[in-house]
Amino acid sequence: MPRKALKVLVIGAGLAGLTLAQGLRRQGIEVEVYERDTTPVDRAQGYRIHINPSGTAALRGCLGEELFALFLDTSGSGGTGLCFTDHRLRPLLSLEGPRNPDPSRTHRSVCRVTLRHLLLRGLEDTVVFGRHYERYEERADGRVVAHFADGSRAVGDVLVGADGSRSRVRAQRLPRIRVADTGAIGVAGKLPLDDALRAWMHPPLLASAHIVMGPQGSRMFVAAHEYRTKPSKALGLPPAGGDLLFDTDTDYLMWAVTATPGRLGLPPDTRLSGPPQLAPAVRSLVGDWHPTLRRAVADADPGTLTALPVRSAASVPHWEPSRVTLVGDAAHCATPLGGMGGNMALRDADLLSRRLAATEGARPEQAVLERAVGEYEAAMRGYAANAVLSSKKNLERSLAENALSRAMTLATFRMIDRLPPVKRRMAAEAGG
Ligand SMILES: Cc1cc2nc3c(=O)[nH]c(=O)nc-3n(C[C@H](O)[C@H](O)[C@H](O)COP(=O)(O)OP(=O)(O)OC[C@H]3O[C@@H](n4cnc5c(N)ncnc54)[C@H](O)[C@@H]3O)c2cc1C
After folding, report:
1. Of ligand 1's atoms, which has the minimum distance to the CA of residue 344?
2. Which of 95, 150, 288, 318 is the most buried (most CB within 10 A)?
């Protein structure tokens, strides 16, 4: 039963939108989510995602006891340590996540499809699939109207754009914010983690996630994902039917390389390359790397090979608050290098739901709502602006093609490895 006469419209049922909906429901606020996908598994969501302690704490804030326990239960191992090596797997820097006894302050590795199913739990009457948002209109009575491609509309008191890096809500609300392709692309693949793989695998690659700094502007992220409890069992999901891309039950090893299309010998438009082009491109990129990495690439299931452009916001500038706001990639698209985007999306959701819940009165006035939105946006900018910049720097470092820049990067990692306080700080938030 809503505790406030307040309705929030959320555009996008991704990580940010669903977590926000969970948080708002928990706070007794009415929410409706509109998603253009027609089902939760319309498209590949990517593989596993690294949730750091701030992301886990945000989930703890938004989910009820039962759902949070399910999140812990269905997350995978392999999310605690992070090692940096060169392309011959020679160690550079090893970060061990703090072993916090409080489960809401730990690193987790979670399958994206599983997480989406989990976040949809209890929201069956709240999320409308197959609804393509087009634009909004602010009415004189203080309410906001969302318009959809099928001619339908929804009316609420606050509109939240959780519609990802190409956000249409942002395009109308803050047209001066720029999010663009960085000129790099990512190509990922996965292979089942079974006894056959264990027999040839370099053991440290199964013990912690690895970032491999390759030569001439290339980088590879490698991580194992082993389920604690099979998600299909815990969540009652139908079996994936042998398709490893959408499979939520089979333990796996994944890798993802980042480089320029030129370095990979692929066209810049990732939609033009399917598995037949991606497989030889990555094999050639890692041609003189450690044999285990070469084999991980060669043995990847071809059906799982996917390519994505790497996008980033130019910055997260200040704007005046209104009853239309943004969360997740719509607000602060960061490159995946550093594994921060999803964690910030969770943090935004927790923050915004609390700020809206803390407004005075059962039916807050417009000025009160705008103040709450402004408080959320100020706090969000505090962590997001830095994260966007540092993830861009991570990318620039990884793409640097000249040998001197690379040598300096490797030397910096080796130096940090000898500085325990710096390592501890990095380990607290580290991700892929
Ligand atoms: C390869 C890769 C690896 C990553 N790894 C990590 C990691 O380990 N850790 C981490 O923290 N982050 C990671 N990230 C970043 C993370 O995935 C994103 O930051 C996160 O998914 C953002 O969530 P979101 O809900 O804001 O956006 P999205 O997940 O993009 O969701 C947006 C939703 O809005 C919907 N939508 C869009 N337009 C409309 C419309 N017009 N009408 C209706 N619905 C619409 C979309 O269909 C989608 O469901 C990674 C990113 C990539 C690309």
Report:
1. 11
2. 95
Q: Residue of the nearest CA to atom 48 in ligand 1?
A: 14
Nearest CA residue ID for atom 20, ligand 1: 342
Q: What is the rounded CA–CA span in Å between residue 221 and residue 161?
A: 30
pLDDT level of residue 387 (50, 70, 90 thresholds): very high
CATH value of 7-80+103-180+315-394 in 1.10.8.60, 3.40.50.1450, 3.50.50.60, 1.20.1260.10: 3.50.50.60
DSSP assignments along 342-410, one per residue: HHHHHHHHHHHHHHHHTSSSSS--HHHHHHHHHHHHHHHHHHHHHHHHHHHHHHHHHH--SHHHHHHHH
- CATH 3.50.50.60 residue spans of the chain: 7-80+103-180+315-394
> 135 CB less than 6 Å from ligand 1?
no
Nearest alpha carbon, ligand 1 atom 3: 336
Residue 67: pLDDT over 70: yes
How remote is the CA of residue 50 from the centroid of ligand 1, in Å? 13
Residue 243, pLDDT > 80, answer no
30-44 b/e (C-beta count within 10 Å ≥ 16 → b)? bbbbbbbbeebbeee
Which of 45-59, 83-97, 121-135, 330-344 shows the lowest per-residue confidence on average (mean pLDDT)? Answer: 45-59
Instruction: Please tell me the predicted confidence (pLDDT) of residue 46.
Output: 62
CB of 97 within 6 A of ligand 1: the answer is no
pLDDT at res. 159? 98
Q: Are 251 and 226 in contact (CB under 8 A)?
A: yes
For residues 183 and 268, give the distance between their C-alpha atoms in angstroms, rounded to a whole number.
8
**267-272: long-range contacts, CB 8 A cutoff, minimum separation 24:** 268/181, 268/183, 268/185, 268/309, 270/185, 270/307, 270/308, 270/309
Helix 112-120 and helix 15-26: axis angle, to 10°? 30
Domain 182-311+397-429 has CATH 3.90.1150: no
Look up the pTM and report it. Answer: 0.93
**159: CA distance to ligand 1 center in Å?**
18
Nearest to 272 by CA among 299, 311, 309: 309
